Amino acid sequence: MKNLFLTYILIIIIISLLIPSGKNNYLSIHTIDVGQGDSILIQTPSSKNILIDGGDDNSHHIISSYLKKQNVENIDYIIATHFDSDHIGGLDNIIDKFNVSNIYAPNYESDTVSYQNLINSCLNKNLNLQGLSSGDFINIEDNINLEVLAPSYIQEENNLNSIVFRLDYKNKSFLFTGDAEANNELNIINSYELNDIDFLKVGHHGSSSSTTSEFVEEVSPDVAVISCGYKNQYGHPHKSTLDTLEKNNVLTYRTDILGNIVFYSDGDTIFTTKDYKLNKK
Known about the structure:
Pfam families: Lactamase_B. By secondary structure, the chain is α/β, with parallel strands linked by helices.
């Protein structure tokens, strides 16, 4: 009887050693509802955390709370797509509260309070704000690569300097566009082969200045997400943008209607675990 018990214990130990700890097969993309702004958390199968943008000055409580609910203690990568306050306003507080390994931004400076707060928080944490531009490449982990598509050069308008990047996980591709506008989109589709994108973070909160018909037809996403505030003063997302997405049969999710939105991918499919009511306002 004792030998049988020892054999059973040995089998359990062997099985536990064969199962990877703390890993799963899913990439998750969390579009955090920060109102009229952007903040997206990407969590990888190996539990790496990528935070894209940090909403405005009032968003850091929302983001911090959300990150803690996802058991985030360390942020491996922060990407500040550009220096508008509705994208970087909350990042200084996030850097103050969490362990951050790397932070990236476009290669320019700004004279705004939000930018200076960001720089000060980086200095206090001995973080080097690293520049990203078209052609840069980051290997996040096995089967996950990040390729920067824009900006190719720095312009006067902040939106035109947005970091646009493609994230590939196995057989699925995800495109994140910041506040990139039509000129950026044209340059990108003329410079890169992007006809196999599966997921699109719609540029500039669904403004008509982005998401042109030519861009959507070329990129041909299956799923899109728009981050914008409920009944915001800009009227985002604009009807023309929604019409373009609908015309191209893109399943479109909006934070102003749905709040926080989470997508998952095993590298072959993209899905949600919640029954989002896309036709309800």
